Amino acid sequence: MDTIDLRSDTVTRPTPAMRAAMLDAEVGDDVYGEDPTVNAFQQRVAEELGFEAGLFVPTGTQSNLLALMSHCERGDEYLVGADAHTYKFEGGGAAVLGSIQPQPIPHDVDGSLPLDKLAAAIKPVDPHFARTRLLALENTWHGRVLPADYLRAAHDFARERGLGLHLDGARLFNAAIASGVKAGEIARYFDSVSVCFSKGLGAPVGSVLVGSTALIDKARRWRKVAGGGWRQAGLLAAAAQYALDHHVDRLAEDHARAAALAAGLGEIPGVKLLGQFTNMVFIDVPADRLRELDVHLRGAGVRISIGYLPTLRLVTHLDVDDEGVARTVAAFRSFFTR
Ligand SMILES: *Cc1c(COP(=O)(O)O)cnc(C)c1O
After folding, report:
1. Which bin fits 320, alpha (ψ -120 to 50), beta or left (φ > 0)?
2. How far is the centre of ligand 1, averaged over its atoms, from the C-alpha of 204 (Å)?
3. Pocket test for ligand 1, best of 86, 195, 199, 205 (most atoms within 8 A of CB)
4. What is the pLDDT of residues 72-108, one digit of tens each?
5. pLDDT above 70 covers what percent of the chain?
6. 194 in contact with ligand 1, CB cutoff 6 A
7. What three-state secondary structure class fits 203?
8. For the domain with range 16-246, which CATH number is right: 3.40.50.720, 2.60.120.260, 3.40.640.10, 3.40.720.10?
């Protein structure tokens, strides 16, 4: 029995066709800038998103860190969501490695950061304060697509205040597919964007940071400093390239399956459906039955993450099909109705 793994969309394994593309990749030493597959891929992502340059890096965490360190200097500050990945789930890298002070801002329910709260958090130019230099947003945020009107307003706000604007677009393509627009329509409001290829797009490894040539030159230097200068990375770029060519439009299937999963789970007494956004479903279950539920689901070949109580997040992806959704709903039902 195949396991249906709903813990995250990072668990996908490369398909046979993706593996074939990796084996065929032409490679060179990327630290010398000589890997043709990497060069073509990062340039293509930059062009598709409307930027001058791109940099292929091992992880989304490193991509965001390089962006923050390229926008900001020691003693600068960035405004960021209190529940944003760069602030909360990246080991505090901006502060630890970049000497950049984060200024967390509480999110609205849709994931946006209210402009009045951002305005109030900008520090005066005075030696007492860190220098507020950058605003970082996240889209999708916990599966939610930031409203287009908000992106426009945040862009104008950042311009007026002289702030750079970075997007953690780990799931940018999910946002684009859900909105029915090209990813560049979302990316255009930003000075830099980080995109993950190792989430729902199904590549084994890799993110791309895009921005101006000057920004990406800085980021390339910081990548080397951070130990991210890699060599024949074209093997991995080929996988990400394959994902870009073949796995973007199909994200709609993940969203539809998440909706089906939410509808199925929502009918089960004992499961409280909190919401479904793009490829994520959020539910509450009685906390005292959680361990028992986890054991039951494992027995039925279903994996969930129970790490972030009290709410459970179930994530659909390339390796979850209709049968997997049906089996998951059936496993929850048999637990709560036995
Ligand atoms: C996964 C994720 C990242 C980081 O990606 P890694 O490759 O796991 O380092 C950054 N931001 C968001 C929103 C993510 O979901």
Report:
1. beta
2. 13
3. 199
4. 999 999 999 999 999 999 999 999 999 999 999 999 9
5. 99
6. no
7. coil
8. 3.40.640.10
